[in-house]
Amino acid sequence: MELYQGALDIPSIFNRWLKEENSSNYGAYIPFIGTIREENGIEALSFDIYEPVLKEWFDSWVAKAEKLGAKVKMAHAIGDVPVHTSSYISAVFSPKRRVALELIDEFVEDFKANAPIWKYDVINGKRVYAEDRSTPMSGSGLLA
User: Fold this and answer.
1) Are 91 and 32 in contact (CB under 8 A)?
2) What is the pLDDT of residues 83-136, one digit of tens each?
3) Residue 90 falls within a domain, yes or no?
4) Which residues are bridge partners to 68 per DSSP?
5) Alpha carbon of 93 to those of 29, 67, 71, 74, 139: distances in Å?
6) Is there a domain that residue 141 lies in?
7) Which residues, including other chains, have CB under 8 Å from residue 4's CB and lie 6 or more apart?
8) Per-residue pLDDT at 98
9) Averaged over 31-40, what is the pLDDT?
10) Which of 28, 29, 48, 70 gives 65 a disulfide partner, CB atoms 3.0 to 4.6 angstroms apart?
């Protein structure tokens, strides 16, 4: 798990991961890249992360992948990420393509639902909480 201030340098991260796993004998490598779309007048998205819980969440996925003979990697941005740049990349390396295809889908969907990352729209230089595109975390909040 890697965290960066601002937009991710996807080619650099992607190439480094490829080099790291070059001799691991995986038959499948499937990345997922999240890019900020221009919509509703936003100029960027901004992210706050609660790192201890994110690490715990990610470590559970590392263990799940290991049981399947696979490996998961991810990187996410902290702070402002302008439109048309990337805030997120994850990848699954696996001996078999079916494992990688299924695992990347489950991983990304669980990330969107359960990772402790709060998203804000940046409009006219101001951060506005993106409540309509946020998912409540289990056990969080005053009334949870």
Assistant:
1) yes
2) 999 999 999 999 999 999 999 999 999 999 999 999 999 999 999 988 666 555
3) yes
4) none
5) 5, 13, 5, 12, 31
6) no
7) 75, 76, 77, 78
8) 96
9) 96
10) 70
Burial of residue 92 (number of CB atoms within 10 Å: 0-12, 13-18, 19+):
buried
Q: Is the residue at 98 inside a domain? A: yes
User: Which is nearest to 100 in space by CA: 35, 23, 26, 10?
Assistant: 26
The pLDDT > 90 percentage for the chain reads: 88
In a domain, 71, yes or no: yes
The owner of tokens 């990610």 is 58
Q: What is the CATH number of the domain that holds 110?
A: 3.90.1170.40
Residue type, 80: D
Domain count for the chain, please give it.
1
Domain with 47, as residue range(s), is 2-133
CA angle 121, 144, 103 (to 5 degrees): 65
Residue 140 has pLDDT above 90, yes or no: no
